[in-house]
Amino acid sequence: MKKTPPTFTLAGIVGGSSEASAARRDVLRGIAASVVSAVPIMLMAGKLKTQRHIAKVTNAERDKLKFLAYVDIDVHHGDGVFYAYEEDPDLVFADIHEDGRYLYPGTGREDETGKGAAKGSKLNIPLKPGSGDPEFLEAWPRVEQHLARFGPEFILFQCGADGLRGDPLAHLNYTSAAHAHAAQSLLDIAMRFSAGRLMAFGGGGYGRNNLARAWSAVLDEMVARKTSASKTQTNAQ
Ligand SMILES: [Zn+2]
Q1: Based on the structure, what is the number of domains in the chain?
Q2: Ion ligand 1 contact residues with beta carbon within 5 A
Q3: I need a surface site. Which of 12, 72, 131, 221 has the fewest CB within 10 A?
Q4: Would you state the pLDDT for residue 35?
Q5: pTM of the prediction?
Q6: What CATH code is carried by the domain that includes residue 87?
């Protein structure tokens, strides 16, 4: 019998690359059985640690999976991942962030789409300061279309909370509805292409209330999907 990784346990993980590696293995094992046993996993980790881990994940899984997707809605451009894989055509990258002319690290221009064989595999969508849910929701279908073009077999979701209104470091005005929408959409895409393989990472966020709102919104979507998948599985037995 395949082991099903418990979402609620993994939600408590903080950082720790060994726990994250174990979680990654669980995703692969748990999902291998069938689509209905697909269990998304939530991990909380600091942004730099997350980026290093993602690099490890992508390298470690490269032998088993062809296209990996990294989707980043943290307010900062995911430069650590982007530049590490800028020339790698198998890492599908999509990042919505505050325009680098106004915020660290200053990268992630729209015309940065990957280099060489990887050209076109990277999508950067910078938003002007003051942008909120309407701008996010308007941009999001481009992320969906980008992922659908490649059909990733494993999705890494960096759901930083620092794009929410009131973050002390940044200047966007999302509500947690943006995070909920992204999570719902990625769950759909994961079920369609990746047998449900989706790992979410907390990322940045510098107001505790915003962290709670954004990450709870993502986790709620995952738990809801897991619950409905479990019911489907139970009914089918
Ligand atoms: Zn950030």
Answers
A1: 1
A2: 74, 76, 160, 162, 204
A3: 12
A4: 23
A5: 0.80
A6: 3.40.800.20
The boundaries of the domain holding residue 71 are 37-204
Residue 81 lies in a domain: yes
* Cα distances (angstroms) measured from residue 87 to each of 61, 113, 117, 175: 18, 10, 7, 34
pLDDT for the residue numbered 179? 96
- CA–centroid distance, 159 to ligand 1, in Å, is 9
Question: How far are the Cα atoms of 22, 55, 72, 112 from residue 82, in angstroms, in the given order?
Answer: 24, 10, 10, 9
- Asked if the structure places residue 102 within a domain, the reply is yes
Q: Where are the beta strands (DSSP E) in the chain?
A: 41-43, 68-72, 91-98, 122-127, 154-158, 198-201
Q: Is 41 strand, coil or helix?
A: strand
Instruction: Tell me, yes or no, whether 210 lies in a domain.
Output: no
The token pair that represents 40 in the structure block:
């998304």
Residue 220 lies in a domain: no
